[in-house]
Write a structure and sequence with these properties.
The complex is a heterodimer.
Chain A lengths: L4 H23 L6 H26 L7 H16 L9 H30 L3 H20 L3 E3 L3 H8 L1 E2 L2 E2 H19 L1 H11 L1 H6 L4 H27 L1 E3 L7 H12 L10 H20 L4 H23 L1
Antiparallel strand pairs in A: 1-4, 2-3
Helix pairs in contact in A: 1-12, 2-7, 2-8, 2-10, 2-11, 2-12, 3-4, 3-5, 3-10, 4-5, 4-10, 6-7, 6-10, 7-8, 8-10, 11-12, 11-13, 12-13
Chain B lengths: L7 H19 L6 H26 L7 H15 L4 H24 L5 H20 L4 E2 L8 H4 L17 H11 L3 H19 L1 H11 L1 H6 L4 H27 L1 E2 L7 H11 L8 E2 L1 H24 L8 H23 L6 E2 L2
Parallel strand pairs in B: 3-4
Antiparallel strand pairs in B: 1-2
Helix pairs in contact in B: 1-13, 2-8, 2-9, 2-11, 2-12, 2-13, 3-4, 3-5, 3-11, 4-5, 4-11, 8-9, 9-11, 12-13, 13-14
The chains are: A mainly alpha, B mainly alpha.
Chain lengths: ~325, ~350
């Protein structure tokens, strides 16, 4: 008898996506339309982008709880630049450029701060990033006084709702982020170092991997990805609400990583898996909603999915 | 006193006392009945959740589900409140225990990391709460004594009139102060006393710390590792359930969307209170002080604004809480890198 289980584990995530799509094609009305595709893709975009950073962090054996708060910081800062609230900008394009570049740099710096805390004081990642989880949203709220910033700048909003070849621009951003990260993780020395640190930190250090630098970089990348996601959220809503941007995002991103098959203890990671993991969670939710099941029940199903995915992983290592 | 050392948990208790003393001198009415009642009434829920978290963290685990379990239990108890105080209370706690049982099974039987197992329970509990409540808050019954649990002041009937007079002296004002505690505070105090006794004076308590100190070593010594881990999650679930009952009773409604982020504030309280996240060492009293400290910061901010010198919005509280956590974890990492040897030590 052929043992199918290794195959199932390897391609299980992919298989699940295919099955979900086939099921929807058969059952859900109007599933095979461009609109369905773009609704589903735009809803996973931010989760995937944040999830990519989270995958790298988890691959080193860490965790980043601050992603949602960093999204809020980036999202809340951005409108201050292009609406000219901080200082008058000569033209809107320069303002938008500043409004994109600065928030992302700030978010990356906060990520760097997470990495520094973890390296310098040997604090567990979950606690080190808890600091910014609590304080980060506060920083965003304080800097906007908690007010909703509404804006109408179509040139900026293009990063979320503009279309290239009929596909929303944010989907292209997601694709680019995924491709770069997948390439870096698989084909570069840095990628091998990330996995080495997660596999066995002590062994990696002894074999000359710059462990601290690798950790600094992954947390900075996670901050960078959160920054991008924060901008996409405000561009989509044409408003920045520091109280809501990225709320609960850390959990969605971790769930996507877990369902995607990345080992949560570090050492093995798959960017494509994270993309598929986020797609599975979204497709299940869409399938349930489209067939009249309430959103709350979808949460319970999502919980079951995470447990199933992680349990399958455990079987492999048992 | 030869063996006297300032432990992290003792330090946080001191900080709390000093902070409250300064605030009491600086602001009128800081220790007045109204303020004490509102601070304790609200923070008792967090204190209860933090106590459960403290047990879980002492075994080296983590419970992310407490916030949404509390929210779910508030809905359950609100739905049952028309049958009476006892039904609401028992139903809410039972729902919490059920969630804890699920966590325990996932972690000990399926060998799933606590972080992920409780993350899944968190989602499931939040979904279940929303389904039970039909996506809105559920009003509790005001015909029964249910609301007394959260809104009442257990011993205030014993509070004599004369303690409010100006010249009652120190003892008199202490008496008035204590007798004005709201019911949830008494529940939390009772829970913490039981928690402190359990961790320091029962074999289960020693097992909890031993498992956190070294799971494999405890297993080899023949300790019931899985059973211990199982029970701490049940305890955490039960306490989250109790917090949910108080939530429903206090606000007069079961709140399916409350509880977001409670788990992380509970973790912060535990860590600020001097319990190591790696397990094996911890303090129940420190946890209580940690929870109160994070709660008092908000009140002090309010009073400070009232003085008119500075004007800080309520949003500053999370920034200050975060900074506080930062300072504590940095200090802790300094302390623990100096004496790694004394694990297996509870300091209550």
């Amino acid at each position: 008898m052929v043992d199918y289980s290794p195959l199932l584990r390897r391609y299980g995530v992919f298989l699940a996506v295919v099955l979900l799509i086939l099921f929807n094609l058969a059952v859900t009305p109007h599933f095979a339309t461009m609109q369905t595709l773009s609704v589903n893709l735009t809803q996973v975009c931010t989760i995937v982008i944040v999830g990519v950073g989270m995958t790298l962090v988890i691959a080193t054996g860490g965790i980043d709880l601050s992603v949602g708060a960093l999204m809020a910081i980036a999202g809340a800062m951005s409108p201050m630049f292009f609406t000219g609230e901080l200082f008058p900008v000569p033209n809107i394009y320069l303002g938008i450029a500043l409004g994109i570049v600065f928030p992302i740099i700030i978010a990356s710096f906060f990520g760097l701060f997470n990495g520094w805390l973890i390296n310098r004081f040997s604090i567990q990642p979950i606690i080190a990033t808890l600091v910014l989880f609590i304080a980060g949203r506060g920083i965003a709220q304080v800097s906007t006084n908690g007010d909703l910033q509404v804006f109408k700048v179509p040139e900026f909003q293009a990063i979320a709702i503009g279309r290239v070849l009929g596909v929303p621009f944010q989907v292209w951003i997601m694709v680019v982020v995924v491709i770069i990260a997948a390439f870096v993780l698989r084909r570069t020395v840095f990628g091998r170092q990330v996995l080495a640190v997660g596999g066995n930190e002590e062994a990696a250090r002894l074999s000359g991997v710059p462990v601290k630098r690798v950790k600094l970089i992954v947390y900075a990348v996670s901050g960078f990805c959160s920054g991008i996601a924060g901008l996409i959220v405000i561009a989509m809503n044409s408003a920045a609400d520091a109280n809501l941007i990225g709320l609960g995002m850390e959990l969605d991103a971790i769930a996507a990583v877990a369902v995607g098959g990345t080992l949560l203890t570090g050492g093995r990671a798959t960017i494509l898996g994270t993309l598929l993991g986020a797609l599975i969670i979204q497709l299940v939710r869409y399938t349930l909603l489209a067939n009249g099941v309430p959103d709350a029940a979808a949460l319970v199903v999502k919980a079951g999915l995470i447990i199933l995915a992680v349990w399958l992983q455990r079987q492999e290592h048992a | 006193m030869k063996n006297f050392r300032i432990t992290p948990s003792l330090a946080v208790i001191l900080v709390l006392v000093i902070l409250v003393a300064i605030a009491a001198l600086r602001y009128d009415g800081f220790l007045g009945v109204y303020n004490v009642q509102s601070v304790l009434r609200y923070n008792s829920m967090f204190a209860l959740v933090a106590l459960g978290m403290c047990f879980v963290i002492m075994t080296g685990g983590i419970d992310l589900s407490v916030g949404s379990v509390a929210a779910m239990c508030s809905v359950v108890s609100a739905l049952l409140s028309s049958y009476g105080l006892f039904h609401g209370l028992a139903g809410g706690i039972a729902a919490g225990i059920l969630a804890g049982l699920i966590n325990g099974v996932l972690i000990t039987k399926l060998n799933i990391l606590p972080f992920i197992a409780t993350l899944a329970t968190m989602l499931a509990a939040s979904g279940t709460g929303l389904l039970l409540a039909g996506n809105q808050s559920v009003s509790v019954s005001y015909d029964t004594y249910f609301t007394n649990l959260g809104q009442g002041d257990l011993l205030s009937f014993m509070r004599p009139e004369w303690v409010d007079a100006d010249e009652v002296g120190f003892l008199g004002s202490i008496l008035g102060f204590i007798l004005s505690f709201p019911t949830p505070a008494w529940i939390a105090i009772l829970a913490y006393i039981i928690g402190g006794v359990v961790i320091n004076h029962t074999s289960f308590g020693r097992h909890v710390l031993a498992v956190g100190g070294g799971t494999e070593a405890s297993r080899l010594m023949g300790l019931p590792v899985n059973r211990t881990i199982f029970f701490v999650y049940v305890i955490s679930g039960a306490l989250a359930g109790l917090a949910g009952v108080i939530l429903a009773s206090q606000f007069g409604a079961g709140q399916p969307i409350e509880g977001i982020g409670w788990e992380l504030f509970a973790i912060a309280s535990v860590v600020v209170g001097g319990t190591l996240l790696s397990g094996g060492k911890g303090s129940v009293a420190g946890t209580l002080a940690g929870a109160l400290l994070l709660g008092v910061i908000f009140t002090i901010l309010n009073f400070e604004n009232g003085m008119g010198w500075i004007s800080l919005s309520a949003y500053w509280q999370s920034v200050i809480r975060g900074l506080f956590l930062l300072v504590v974890v940095i200090l802790q990492s300094r302390l623990t890198s100096k004496d790694p040897a004394d694990s297996l030590k509870a300091s209550t």
